[in-house]
Amino acid sequence: VATEYVPVQKLKFGVTIENILEVAPDVVVTFLVGQKQSTFFEQWKAVRDENIEIVTTTSITQEYMHLTCAEGTMKNVYFSAPYAEELETPASRRWKNSIRARFNQSQIPYLGSDHEAAYLAIMLYKKAVEICGSTETEAVIHALETGISLAAPGGYCRLNPWDHHLIRDVGVFR
Fold first, then answer.
1. Which helix (H) or strand (E) holds 158?
2. What pTM, to 2 d.p., does this model score?
């Protein structure tokens, strides 16, 4: 229905929220980033229309706002990600336990998709090195292009040989 570009330093979203409520869309997709722009969610909570769903990208797995904002602020906020700490699968629990055994909550407050992606990149590289028996760049690339796959904390992943894209599940969380 509409798009609004918001300066990164914006703190007050009254007019934006009024515009949203006036149009009454089925869903609002937000790409707001940073601590200042996260104030949108608290302002939205005060006046929100329960029939309008919010979809966000970075606010949960990168800023874990569902844990740091006032209770109810992130109610009915949806996000998609390949990994969130709340994912309760055996692979996720094993990985979380191994990380938490080495780093406490104050060192790593939340294990989000960026953490899992970094781990996955290292594990894919490790598997490629094991396949080719070398750390030489071209040999590793060739090993990666065999269609290498592995089970990650977020689920099964396979590297597409012809375009180097990672094929994996992405969940929708609420």
1. strand 155-159
2. 0.81
CA dist., res. 31 & res. 155, Å (int): 25
DSSP state of 82: S
Separation of alpha carbons 79 and 42, rounded Å: 17
Which of 170, 56, 54 lies closest to 116 in space, CA to CA?
170
Alpha helices in the chain (DSSP H): 14-23, 34-37, 39-47, 58-61, 65-68, 90-102, 113-132, 137-144
Residue 84 CB: number of other CB atoms within 10 A? 21
**CB contact set of 103 (below 8 Å; sequence gap of 6+):** none
Residue 171 is encoded by which pair of tokens?
Answer: 């969940």
Encode pLDDT of 105-149 as tens digits: 899 999 988 899 999 999 999 999 999 999 999 999 999 999 999
Q: For residues 156, 159, 163 and 167, what is the CA-based torsion angle, rounded to 10 degrees?
A: 0
